[in-house]
Write a structure and sequence with these properties.
The chain is an all-alpha fold. The protein has nine helices and two strands. A two-stranded antiparallel sheet has the order 1-2. Helix 1 runs parallel beside helix 8 and helix 4 (78-97) packs antiparallel against helix 5. The chain is globular.
Length: 267
């Protein structure tokens, strides 16, 4: 049974890579439909806070369930525990803290919410089952350069992601509306610093885990978030040209709006 399940976990990781490519192509053709890009006429939408909390929760709940109801033999080893903790720390923040910091937020289409919920359950099982039952690391893996570099990238990426989300939440004063280009942090250098941080984070996790499962998740994150970042970049670039008159009317503080120097996409 164990060799069969290990084979299944590898196949699930390869399937995740295929889904990454499919999602990349579809999002390039159809564009993302969430947040500011949701059509006003979209039916069946989930409130932003509830959507974020519930759709991310399976990535926290499923691993905890897997580790509770199974032997989780590999979690007796330090590398496995640390890698699983890296995964859980991100999703504890994402499902239990981040949603309740949202200010306003546009409702999410039900189909987008459902796809995210299913993926988080799928990926939560894939990562936790592999790390708790099948991943084999030497005792000194935590001193291996691949683990050390990967852990540092994971930590830096997570901090960039959290800081960038903080900047985005504080873009507007109470009562302000309209699109504003974020300033500060890595937003001075890249259009979508929050996405950039998350991609770096999961690439670090994939490197530290040195597994097809971790690599597949990093690849999925990069494929999906690149298309979203590109969409943001095109919107910001367009407003940088067409929003100049509005910027002048708002005076010096208007430089926080759409007009400003062009920044590279990156993510």
């Amino acid at each position: 049974m164990e060799p069969a399940e290990r084979f299944l976990l590898d196949r699930l990781a390869y399937l995740q890579c295929a889904m990454s490519l499919l999602g990349f192509v579809l999002l390039r053709l159809r564009r993302s439909c969430y947040g500011r890009y949701v059509s006003p006429g979209s039916a069946f939408r989930v409130p932003a806070r509830a959507a974020w909390a519930l759709q991310e929760l399976p990535s926290l709940a499923v691993p905890l369930w897997v580790c509770t109801v199974t032997a989780a033999e590999r979690l007796h080893r330090a590398p496995n525990r640390i890698l699983l903790a890296m995964f859980l720390v991100h999703y504890a923040q994402r499902s239990l803290i981040f949603p309740f910091l949202i200010r306003g937020g546009k409702p999410m289409p039900l189909n987008t919410f459902a796809l995210a919920f299913m993926f988080c359950g799928y990926n939560g099982y894939l990562q936790s089952r592999y790390l708790s039952q099948y991943a084999v690391y030497a005792d000194d893996w935590v001193t291996d350069p691949r683990f050390l570099v990967g852990f540092c990238l994971w930590l830096i990426g997570m901090l960039v992601n959290i800081h960038s989300d903080h900047i985005l939440r504080n873009l507007r004063r109470p009562g302000e509306t309209g699109y504003k280009i974020p300033r500060g942090g890595l937003f001075e250098y890249v259009t979508a610093a929050n996405y950039f941080g998350e991609v770096v984070e999961w690439c670090g996790y994939g490197l530290a885990s040195w597994s097809v499962q971790g690599g597949a998740f990093a690849f999925f994150t990069a494929c999906i978030l690149f298309t979203r970042a590109q969409q943001h970049h095109h919107r910001a670039s367009g407003l940088g040209v067409h929003g100049r008159n509005e910027t002048r009317r708002r005076g010096a503080r208007g430089t926080e709006l759409a007009h400003g120097p062009e920044r590279p996409l990156v993510l």
